[in-house]
Amino acid sequence: MKNNECFKEFIKYTLLNVLGTVGVSCYILADTLFISRGMGSNGLTALNLAIPVYSLIYGTGLMLGIGGATRYAIAKGEGNNEKADSVFTSTIGLSIIFSFIYMAAGLFFPTEIAKILGADQDVLEMTGTYLNMLLCFAPAFLLNNIMVSFIRNDNNPRLAMAATITGSLANVLLDYIFIFPLNMGIFGAILATVMSPVISIFVSSLHLIKKQNDFHFRLSLFRPFIALSCMSIGTAGFITELANGIVVIIFNMLILRLNGNTGVAAYSVITNTAIVATAILSGISQGIQPIISRSYGEGNYKNIMLTLKYGLIATIILSIAFYSAALLFAVPIASLFNGENNAELQKTAVNGIRIYFFGLLFAGLNILMSNYFASVKKAFPAMLVSLLKGFILIIPTAMVLSETIGIEGVWMSYPCAEAVTALTAAVLFLRFGYLKLKTDK
Predict the structure, then answer these.
(1) In Å, how far are 72, 148, 155, 195 from 159, measured between CA atoms?
(2) Segment holding 406, helix H or strand E
(3) Helix (H, G, I), strand (E, B), or coil: what is residue 217?
(4) Contact (CB, 8 A) for 135 and 109
(5) Residue of 280, 287, 278, 243 lying closest to 375 (CA atoms)
(6) Which of 20, 104, 385, 409: disulfide with 402, CB 3.0–4.6 Å?
(7) Is the separation of the CB atoms in 269 and 421 below 8 Å?
(8) For residues 145 and 147, what is the distance between their CA atoms, to the nearest angstrom?
(9) Is the Cβ–Cβ distance between 129 and 190 less than 8 Å?
(10) Cα end-to-end span (Å), the chain
């Protein structure tokens, strides 16, 4: 009977969270599609050059949102309401500090950042415009991540999902309106993107307006040590996104040398298509987090292991499905984003999709295990898995393989890094995740 209840809760949280993360990925995909159709390969190149900055902002939001919400769920499981309020207050305080830093960069240094990221004269203006708006609206992205995470952990996953999807659908609609009927170019694309978290925050605020929330902002409860603790728990998510951004920068530089702007445009098609699959896999891991963190606070270790088992099964099935789809539909996927019918872009993207997507067979497991470790306050293995998959392995692998094989070597570095990380995650689970969990609360 308890197993049935656990399974129902798993379905509830993961399904709603997957819908939310798919919504986020779809507006990134919509950006890619509309920019490719409206601005061609140069637009795709500018978008991909700016993606690392989006990863940095989104990663900061994940660090604050997931880290703070995990601490909040554990405090609620322990019955400590004052500590729960202190966690929320401290998380908001941190977001204000990061917001000022990102806004200053967007106001004063967008062109300089674009040049550092590799923008040449053909795409410099577009990239600078995109970065300026993205960084200036960083507060909205951070607050949205925090609100969605806390609401999900405050027994309202439906509203968290509704807020995310509403913002994402609005972005897709505004993308089309701004780029095509209004002909606003890259400015229209980024304007639609930054409006998404703003709209999502308005929907999330219903949780506060209706007074359904068990978390409250109380300035007197701001605690620096709690803020740092929240950051440490959420560091795995931040490292993953930051590493993704660094990898994109390195990949862009390698591909620019091997295949120019057309190669970077193909890379944009590959990664922004893969992001939908990755988002669904991330949705599973984020969906089990509230259940595992609450169970950890209650000392219900059996529930933790059962929830993790369901997450692993779902992740494996979906990973196989995504890779199969990539093999079957690589050609139409590439054609969808090839508005200029560029033969070189088409060939590069098709080959890249078929090689790159093999990494999804391992990536989902790595995302799940990293999030699982963070959910039970095992910061070291969570961080190690994130660092291995996102930075330590993939960059040297890409450099070596690109020199020996060419651009195919760049695509191969992703599955190679994910496979080694998956093996490491399994060893870490046996050491920290299961055996230690029995005796170490």
Answers:
(1) 18, 8, 9, 19
(2) none
(3) coil
(4) no
(5) 287
(6) 409
(7) no
(8) 6
(9) yes
(10) 25
Sorted by sequence, the CB contacts under 8 Å of residue 284 that are 6+ apart come out as: 14, 17, 18, 311, 314, 315, 318, 364, 368
Please give the Cα distance from 369 to 389 (Å, whole number): 12
**What pLDDT, on the 0 to 100 scale, is given for residue 149?**
85
* Burial (Cβ within 10 Å: 0-12, 13-18, ≥19) of residue 42: buried
C-alpha span between 18 and 352 (Å, rounded): 26
Sign of the torsion formed by the C-alpha atoms of 360, 363, 365 and 367: negative
Amino acid (one-letter) located at 99: S
Taking alpha carbons only, the member of 36, 5, 94, 22 closest to residue 270 is: 36
By the 8 A CB rule, do 254 and 399 touch? yes
Nearest to 382 by CA among 432, 332, 328: 432
| Closest to 276 measured CA to CA, from 348, 200, 197, 333 | 333
Whether the CB-CB separation of 159 and 76 falls below 8 Å is answered with no
> Average pLDDT by consecutive 10-residue portion of the chain (441 residues)?
71 76 71 79 82 88 85 78 82 91 94 88 89 95 91 82 86 89 89 92 87 71 70 71 79 86 84 83 84 80 86 93 93 84 88 93 91 81 82 89 91 94 90 54 42
Token pair, residue 237, equals 């998510």
Neighbouring C-beta atoms of residue 221, cutoff 10 Å: 18
Task: State how far the Cα of 118 lies from the Cα of 410, in Å rounded to an integer.
Answer: 17
Instruction: For tokens 């390195």, name the residue.
Output: 250
The one-letter amino acid at 132: N
Location of structure tokens 């129902």: 8
Which DSSP letter does residue 341 get? -
Nearest to 419 by CA among 383, 389, 397: 389
Task: Say how far apart CA 384 and CA 373 lie, in whole Å.
Answer: 10
Model pTM? 0.71
Q: Answer yes or no: are the C-beta atoms of 24 and 168 closer than 8 Å.
A: yes
Q: Report the residue count for the chain.
A: 441
Nearest to 249 by CA among 116, 63, 101: 116
Q: Collapse the DSSP code of 133 into the 3-class scheme (helix H, G, I; strand E, B; otherwise coil) and give the result.
A: helix
